[in-house]
């Protein structure tokens, strides 16, 4: 689908073979344009993009489109050439939303529950349940042995110890999902979990995300409507009445779907080598965040300063450096929309690359680069099974030594890391295609996806060093004779 520039005018913005163990020699560090990467520019751009004016840049909203138009204007002002559709900076695409309809009804005994407010339903399911509710405590084998759950709704209290390295929220979600599946297999028609005191903070902060439902590109797997038994999550305050015998659970759950526009912002600085300028190093990031949601401590705007205004300001700075001194290959800059909806912009562009998939020789992705210890960072795609180019990794490690000299945390790139960080950013769709891809990040922190992820909390000297590292890697790749070799035996674990 295509959208015309009239939409942007309405926004009132001015738009006009085997992996090598050693990389090819890099361009001399005296010939790069690292001096063009300035902390003042990065801070100015981040303060603009993470301001309340853009209302958290939620994917599929006018706020995301306004922020995208601002990014396009910055690219125009820098002098980067449009690389989107029809000679513009934009590649529009459609996203689809699936959610529980507002008319859905849910009650337990005499308690009428507002869906995804008083009680959270895990997934948009079409379900009609009228069943007796049985309480099974914490659902131990001994407790379940006393109850026949077939044809009944089962209520139980959440419990369990969090494995080392895993966030409580992810542990809770996985536990509820997996144990509910066991109860459904035993014949239960619904499962109602009562959160413990640990879960209450998660309920209050993350509960509103379930009201939004699921998103995907049209026809994507997240849009499949399940006509299945519902999983319901009740707040800790429900414990006093959820245990009462003789109650009936009534659920009439219906789903509805909507479509919205989102956009990738694309710009390029052409290379100087006649033979190599048709090849591109893609510097990628995402511009969206969580938008306006239920207030936390009086703040309802999730500005996403680290996630991911840091990445956007870094890519703009790298764009300025390449404009000042282009490389032999072309530099492609991609601000990808709706990442928080499931990497939708990068999934769309990787499937519809306007420069041609075979011409993208490497992808360097910026994801949350401004928090945590000032001397540490992570490089995703560095180690197997996530690594698809030892050649590119060696180049990136050499760039770190030439530049910021971060101490690299390798734990976040491990296949057994419980957060699965490699699979949660825009490096993934390109890596799945076999394109050498890395992601530069300073990883999670307590303000992640909260209104506290504000521009005042960013470590700007560290962000500038992260930007320099990413630039020096790209500078080496655009100027070497051969593109980064790909690992022939690359295969992700999932």
Automatic annotation (TrEMBL):
Domain Peptidase M28 span(s) in chain numbering: 264-467
Keyword Signal: yes
Alphabetic keyword roster: Signal
Classification via PANTHER family: METALLOPEPTIDASE M28 FAMILY MEMBER, PEPTIDASE M28 DOMAIN-CONTAINING PROTEIN
Entry keyword annotation includes tRNA processing: no
Name recorded for this polypeptide: M28 family peptidase
Organism encoding this protein: Hymenobacter bucti
Pfam families given in the database record: Peptidase_M28 (PF04389)
N-terminal signal peptide: 1-19
């Amino acid at each position: 689908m295509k959208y015309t520039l009239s939409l942007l005018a309405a926004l009132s913005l001015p738009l006009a073979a085997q992996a090598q163990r050693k990389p090819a020699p890099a361009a001399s560090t005296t010939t790069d344009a690292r001096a063009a990467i300035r902390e003042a520019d990065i801070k100015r751009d981040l303060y603009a993009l993470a301001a309340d004016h853009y209302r958290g840049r939620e994917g599929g909203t006018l706020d995301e489109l306004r922020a995208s138009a601002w990014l396009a204007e910055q690219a125009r002002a820098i002098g980067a050439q449009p690389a989107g559709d029809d000679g513009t900076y934009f590649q529009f695409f459609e996203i689809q939303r699936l959610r529980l309809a507002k008319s859905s009804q849910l009650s337990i005994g005499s308690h009428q529950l507002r869906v995804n407010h008083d009680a959270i339903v895990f997934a948009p399911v079409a379900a009609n349940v009228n069943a007796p509710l049985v309480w099974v405590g914490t659902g131990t084998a001994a407790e379940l042995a006393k109850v026949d759950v077939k044809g009944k709704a089962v209520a139980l209290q959440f419990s369990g110890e969090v494995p080392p390295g895993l966030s409580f929220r992810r542990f809770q979600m996985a536990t509820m999902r997996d144990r509910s599946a066991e109860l459904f297999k035993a014949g239960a028609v619904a499962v109602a979990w009562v959160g413990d005191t640990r879960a209450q903070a998660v309920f209050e902060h993350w509960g509103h995300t379930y009201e939004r439902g699921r998103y995907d590109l049209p026809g994507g797997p997240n849009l499949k409507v399940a006509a299945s038994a519902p999983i319901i999550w009740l707040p800790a305050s429900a414990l006093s009445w959820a245990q009462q015998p003789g109650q009936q659970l009534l659920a009439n759950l219906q789903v509805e779907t909507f479509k919205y526009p989102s956009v990738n912002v694309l710009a390029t600085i052409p290379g100087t080598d006649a033979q190599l300028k048709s090849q591109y190093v893609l510097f990628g990031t995402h511009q969206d965040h969580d938008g306006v949601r239920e207030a936390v401590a009086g703040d309802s705007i999730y500005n996403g300063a680290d996630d991911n205004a840091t990445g956007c300001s870094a890519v703009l700075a790298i764009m300025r450096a390449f404009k000042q001194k282009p490389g032999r290959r072309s530099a492609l800059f991609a601000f990808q929309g709706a990442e928080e909806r499931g990497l939708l912009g990068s999934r769309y562009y990787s499937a519809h690359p306007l420069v041609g998939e075979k011409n993208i020789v490497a992808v360097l992705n910026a994801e949350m680069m401004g928090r945590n210890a000032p001397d540490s960072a992570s490089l995703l795609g560095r180690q197997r099974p996530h690594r698809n180019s030892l050649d590119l990794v060696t180049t990136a490690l050499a760039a770190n030594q030439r530049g910021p000299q971060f101490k690299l945390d390798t734990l976040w790139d491990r296949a057994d890391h419980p957060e699965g960080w490699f699979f949660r950013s825009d490096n993934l769709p390109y890596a799945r295609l076999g394109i050498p891809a890395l992601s530069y990040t300073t990883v999670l922190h307590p303000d992640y996806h909260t209104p506290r992820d504000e521009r005042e909390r960013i470590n700007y000297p560290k962000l500038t060093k992260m930007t320099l590292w990413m630039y020096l890697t790209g500078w080496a790749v655009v100027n070497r004779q051969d593109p980064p070799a790909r690992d022939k035996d690359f295969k992700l674990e999932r």
